[in-house]
Design a protein that fits this description.
- With 143 residues, this protein is an all-alpha fold.
- Helix content is 50%, strand content 0%.
- The C terminus is likely disordered.
Length: 143
């Protein structure tokens, strides 16, 4: 038997109804992390009934522009497309229906495609530099 522990905001909604652990629960948590990195908010921002994923979904469902949800630190024009792309991926990964979430293999492919110009042909130093807005939002300063 598997035991799952976690914090509010990171645990997939279906986990409250089942003890089965699968990849889709991990995908949900990864999507929350993507939303944290792009918005600068924490997973449990909001009241006791609202998570970051729920807030992000409502933001999109209301027709609000993605740019309005992004952290000021990543709103620079040179990062805007990539950050919007990553925010969208966070939305897809936090779908309330596990069957609609991508596999982690697909998530990696999407992220590589987003960063394709840097992955194929640019030096690693340039890649790290261009990833700096995401790294700034990280709680770890050891990067």
């Amino acid at each position: 038997m598997s035991v799952v522990a976690g914090s509010f905001g990171y645990i997939a909604p279906e986990h409250a109804h089942t003890i089965r652990v699968n990849e889709k629960i991990d995908i949900y948590s990864f999507g929350v992390i993507l939303l944290e990195l792009t918005t600068g908010q924490e997973a449990n921002d909001g009241d006791e009934h609202t998570s970051l994923a729920q807030w992000a979904w409502r933001h999109i469902q209301k027709g609000n522009p993605i740019v309005d949800a992004l952290d000021e630190e990543v709103k620079e024009p040179c990062y805007l497309d990539e950050m919007s792309y990553v925010f969208n991926l966070g939305i897809i990964c936090t779908d309330t229906q596990p069957s609609k979430r991508p596999s982690m293999k697909d998530v990696v492919k999407i992220l590589l495609k987003c960063n394709q110009g840097l992955v194929y042909g640019e030096e690693n130093a340039t890649s790290l530099c261009n990833a700096s807005p995401l790294l700034k939002n990280s709680k770890s300063s050891s990067v």
